[in-house]
Write a structure and sequence with these properties.
The protein is mostly helical. Helices cover 76% and strands 0% of the residues. Residues 168-195 are annotated as: Disordered.
Length: 195
């Protein structure tokens, strides 16, 4: 049986993954909306995290449900989905590599937003966009870490579940094969008996 601590840990991590995916989706959708307001397409730094956050909401919901249907194939599928999302968020972190500066003016996404808005005469919203860029970068890194941990935990749970199924399957086969083979004593006649 899988320990309640392991299930609780996975559930808590999944809850935070889902919550952070919703926040990342909202922030990146807001950025894309801002870029479109001054006639530009959303940059890859916003589009890729948006795509993987939408997928994370769907896949994480599936994985939370799959946690309670402890079949080996469901756990393996959850692990595969974690690998996909982990790679996606890793790619997003790579695209956001120029946005990890403490000073907001050095962050490339902030610069694109600031100068794009001022070029068409809109108010730049510098401080709020600076905070959102930092939030986006931080949450993407946190998602990379969380999906790595749930990937490992989910694989461990799948292995434990498979081992448990094998053990219970072996026990059932053993009990069925020995159930009908009862030994009945024979009377001793002093001769040799052939079996």
């Amino acid at each position: 049986m899988i320990s309640p601590l392991a299930k609780s840990t996975i559930w808590v991590l999944r809850f935070f993954q889902w919550s952070f995916a919703v926040i990342i989706m909202a922030v990146t959708a807001y950025f894309i909306h801002q870029f479109r307001s001054f006639g530009s397409h959303g940059p890859r730094e916003a589009v890729v995290p948006l795509i993987f956050s939408i997928l994370a909401i769907i896949f994480t919901t599936f994985s939370i449900i799959g946690l309670y249907f402890l079949s080996f194939s469901m756990q393996l599928l959850s692990t595969l989905l974690d690998i996909i999302l982990w790679v996606g968020y890793l790619a997003s972190a790579g695209l956001l590599r120029r946005n990890y500066h403490v000073r907001g003016r050095n962050n490339l996404l902030w610069q694109k937003l600031y100068y794009g808005r001022t070029s068409v005469g809109q108010r730049p919203r510098g401080s709020s966009n600076n905070a959102l860029v930092k939030l986006l970068a931080a949450l993407v890194v946190i998602q990379v870490i969380f999906f790595f941990f749930t990937m490992i935990l989910q694989l461990w749970v799948a292995k434990k579940n498979r081992d448990q199924q094998r053990l219970s399957g072996t026990t059932k086969r053993f009990s069925r094969s020995t159930a009908g083979s009862e030994v009945t004593p024979m009377a001793d006649t002093g001769g040799v008996h052939h079996v």
